[in-house]
Amino acid sequence: MDSLLAFAAPLALMLPLVAEGADVPKAVPAPSIEPSSAESAVQFEAASAAPEEPPLVNPLSALRGSATARQVRIEQRVVVRIAPAAPAARQNMLAELPQRALPSRFEEARKEKCVPLDRIAGVQTGSGNRLVLFLRDQRMISVNLEKSCHARDFYSGFYVEKNKDGRLCAERDKLHSRTGVRCDVEVMRHLVAAGN
């Protein structure tokens, strides 16, 4: 029984399409009535004032006829994740430097306005509200976050929404931690080895 119903259902949906293409005889116009007295004139006016039945409309043709243009807006967001640099990666970066005693201290030098995101190799938490970015060209950059933020919230790296210029900029971008903390980047400075 169910298979018969499943077979008949598509046919029932196609029936209006078939009926739309077939010639349907037009309704025969009603003969004109000439009122002979005042009473028949009132009846004629009452009959003509009665609402007419709406014509039968095929639902599928009505659907096709009401096609309107709709707009679709596609938005794209690119979020970049910067992970902490693995200890082996940091050692490899240092292995390419000339062999000399490694500095035990670094000092902040000139300010940096922006850093390309594709040049950041890793991040490490510093003290207070500071993060240290390791760049692919063996430079290090200190990032100061807003005062209410703590660097320890970014122990597993951070996310940043990629802008059109593809750079991380101070006083513009926000860093998002995996725990949900959002912090503004206030200042970025180069880190250089302290002079003895």
Task: Describe the structure in brief.
The chain has 196 residues and is an alpha+beta fold. The protein contains four helices and ten strands; from the N terminus they run H-H-H-E-H-E-E-E-E-E-E-E-E-E.
Pick out its properties:
196 residues; six-stranded antiparallel beta sheet; 4 helices; 24% helix; alpha+beta
Describe the protein in words.
The chain is elongated, with a radius of gyration of 39 Å. With 196 residues, it is of the alpha+beta class. Strands 2, 4, 5, 6, 9 and 10 form a six-stranded antiparallel β-sheet that branches. The chain is built from four helices and ten strands. It has a domain at 79-96 and 105-193. Helices cover 24% and strands 28% of the residues. It has helices spanning 2-21, 38-49, 59-65, 87-95; strands at 79-82, 106-112, 114-116, 120-125, 130-135, 140-145, 158-161, 167-169, 174-176, 182-193.
